Structures are given as structure tokens and as C-alpha cells.
Predict the 3D structure of the following.
Amino acid sequence: MSIITLTEEQDLIKMTAKDFAAREVRPKAAENDSEGKIPNWLVEKMGELGFMGMMVPEEYGGSGLDCVSYVIALEELCAACASTGIIMSVNNSLVCAPILAFGSEKQKQAYLPDLAGGKKLGCFSLSEPDAGSDPASMRTIALRKTDSYVINGAKAWITNGAEADVMVLIAATDPSKGHHGISAFIIDMDNPGVKIAKLEHKLGIKATSTAQVYFEDCKVPKSAMIGQEGDGFKIAMTTLDGGRIGVATQAVGIARAAFEEAVRYSKERQAFGRTISSFQGLQFMMADMATRLEASRLLTLQAAVMKDKHMNYSKESAMAKLYAAETAMWVTTKAIQIHGGYGYTVDYPVERHFRDAKITEIYEGTSEIQRIVIAREILREIV
Ligand code: CAA
């Protein structure tokens, strides 16, 4: 952790998360990855520790903490297991956050206590098989009836999709209005109109589900809408601003885990009669890994601080995600290089970190989308 001073409470959160990760998460991470076992049993435990709704106020059953505390705890879990980390991150950033920010009092009371307490799990659904980076071109339609909406269409790339009890869904209510014809809903996943169509077989984060979901005449009451009709695109974008802090943190956690493995290995492995850590070539590599890792963490904490201060942090969360994700790919590549052939095998955890790192450049907005968000803000700011 950097020089940024943590409060006593944040220190305690960090220690709690570190201890939980070491006891319950890390020991099973490799097995869960190789067997594609989703650690559902951890959701309730994370709920009991207050990790599933960290920024949800206590009156709705959450921990009532700030975003910096969330980042600190999430990094510890992601360093142990990136899959467990994203299960936690999606529930916090993409599900609890929009319900808290845009939901009605009734929706908050109905959903947040169970989501924050780890009794229910949430997922977020925006992308479609043919609409990822450009979600405004979505085709899933929610047709308004007298006192309900009927949803039809297909959604894709839904983390937690197979296990979730609750979905925050973004769907078109009036396609003729473009961005302004998109709305947000809370969907109970046991609605008979919701069908899990396909589970993806992935390169990394194998201990999570990534689902395609179909909606077939899925009827929901009008009261399932979050905010007003037409608010959905802005709700999605605001939600993703926060989500990107979570993915940046995941990337920091993955990079840190790979970096520490590489440093330890370099101090044990001998070549030419010396430990390989004594070679300047490796020292320079490790110095660069440490520097990029620290820069990623600082960018992520900066975005979190700005969120806590209710500032506009779109650019900063995009910068944090972009830089941390590319750092995670770079650091994990170097970590394998330092391990040599052993790093390329499943006998060492760096190959898992390498595979897990890649998704951070893709989900919740690709690196190219982050560059678009950053560039647009820069062009607006500098006159
Ligand atoms: N906050 C609030 N409002 C915002 C906003 C933000 N960050 N960004 C844009 N908006 C508003 C704009 O102000 C505009 O509003 P008005 O029409 O009232 O002026 C409206 O939204 C449209 O904005 P743009 O014209 O900028 O929209 P665009 O179509 O050009 O798209 C984009 C911009 C940044 C490229 C956006 O489409 C985007 O972020 N794409 C990537 C989507 C993404 O991240 N998908 C990941 C899915 S989640 C996931 O990965 C699954 C999972 O489970 C982890």
C-alpha cells in the first residue's frame, strides 16, 4: 500500500480482508479455477463481513463505508482470487450502487438488505450479443402495457448471471428515441420469462459465471423500473463509472499477486551460481513492475477519493481502469518471464494471474472505450 494514510477504520478493514483472503479465498483459488467451481459459499461469508454492500448505508443493511474502504478490501480479495473479487465488485458497484443512487425508497428497502448481507447475489445486464461497446444500439425491448412492461430480447456477458437472484437490466423502452429511449429495471431472476441461455467457457476468471440470458415475454410490474422511463442510459453510464474503479482494483490485485510471486521466486531460483534476483536485468524488470503497480493503485485511489467527494470522476475512473488493466497484463507477462518455463505451467499461480488479467482490458468498457471517455473529457476541459 502506498503512502496514502489510511484511517484506523480503513486499516482494520484491510486487515480483515487480508485475513479472510488468506484463510478462505487463496487456498481454494487454483482448484476453483481449474475446476470452474464458483465459490458461492463465500458470498454469504463476504456478506457477514460487510463486503457485499460496502457503500450501502447501514439503514439498508450495508456497511456505510466510503469507496476508498471498498477499494482497500477489494484489492485484498482480488490478489487472492480475481474471480471472487469480481463477484464482490459486481454486487457492490453494478447492482447495489444503481439501486441506491436511482432506486425508489421501496426498491432500496426491498433489495439492498439481502444484497448487502450476502443473502442474495446481483448481476448487471447491459451488453447484448451484437451490442457491447455501443450499448445504445441494444435491441432488447421492454414494451409498456397498462401497469407493466413485457421484456423480450437477449443479453450477454453477464458476470454472476447463473447464480444471481437479482438483475439490474438496461433495456430499450422506445428505440425511436436513441439514448433517451433506454430504461433501467430490477428483475427477479426467478421470473419465468428469464432464461439462462448459455454459459461462456473463458480464458480466465473461471470461478465465475458469464451468462447469456434471454427474455421471453418477461412481465414485470411498472414498479420494477429504476428511475424514470428514458433514464436508463445515464444510469448505466454512471454505474459503469463506479464499476470501473472496481475493475481497476481487480487489476491492481492481480498484478500485485503476480509481482509478489515473481519477487519471491527470483530470490530462491539459482542460475550461474547466484540467485536470479541478483541479476540487474531482473532487478530492472521488478523495479518497473513495482512502479507501474504503484501508479495503478494511486490512480485507482484517486478515482475513489473523487467519488467519495461527489466530484465528476468519469475521466479518472477510466484512467485508473485503463492503466491498471494494461499494467496487469504487462506485470503478469513479466512475472511468467521471471519464472521461466515453470511460470508457463499450472504448478505456479502466475499463469492464472496472466489469464485473469486479460479480462480487465475488456469488461466494463474495453481499453479503447476508456481512451474515448478520457479523450472526450480532455477535449471538453482544455479550451
Ligand atoms: N455519466 C452520466 N451520463 C453520461 C455519461 C456518464 N459517465 N456518459 C455519457 N452520458 C450521457 C451523455 O451526457 C449523453 O446524455 P444527453 O444525450 O442527455 O446529452 C448520453 O449519455 C449519451 O452519451 P454519448 O453521446 O457520449 O454516448 P455514446 O453512445 O457516444 O457512448 C460511450 C459513449 C462512452 C462509448 C459508452 O457507450 C460506453 O461506455 N460504452 C462501453 C459500454 C461498457 O462499458 N459496457 C460494459 C458492460 S458491463 C459488463 O462488462 C458486464 C459485467 O457483468 C461485468
